[in-house]
Amino acid sequence: MNTVRKIPCCTTVRISSPCLFMDKKTGCQFPDKHCHPIVPNCKGEKENCKHIIQIETEEYCNAYMNPNIQWEFCTKCPLETHIPKKEEKKKGVLDTRKAAKHHKQKG
Predict the structure, then answer these.
(1) Rounded to whole angstroms, how far apart are CA atoms 89 and 84?
(2) Which residues is 52 bridged to in the sheet?
(3) Which one, of 18, 19, 17, lies nearest residue 30 by Cα?
(4) Residue 14: which of 42, 33, 41, 35 has the closest Cα?
(5) pTM over 0.85
(6) Which of 10, 46, 49, 89 could form a disulfide bond with 82, CB atoms 3.0-4.6 angstroms apart?
(7) Where are the alpha helices (DSSP H) in the chain?
């Protein structure tokens, strides 16, 4: 029988929001004991990241308790939704036999 674990809700900053760091008995298990507001990198020029939630007068990340860590150590947030992804051109593997055969057919 599969049991679904109910995620407890925050009782510190993000009141009533499900939080993986919240423990029913001991409270917030996050090292700082509270969530941190978003950083300027979380906001884009044209649009904001879709993970931003407004709580009272502050804005918080719905995915990370301390968004500054993502930008400081990773140089970019892996969940950012406000910065367009650049498509990388795939470089094909050069098969020298096929290239030589193709060259002979042209010449």
Answers:
(1) 16
(2) 61
(3) 19
(4) 35
(5) no
(6) 49
(7) 67-74, 96-106
Residue 8's pLDDT is: 77
Torsion angle, alpha carbons of 11, 12, 18, 24, to 10: -50
Pairing type for strands 52-55 and 27-28 reads: unpaired
Nearest Cα residue to 60 out of 4, 104, 12, 107: 12
pLDDT at 23: 81
Q: How far apart are CA 44 and CA 77, in angstroms?
A: 13
Strands 27-28 and 22-23, by their bridges, are antiparallel
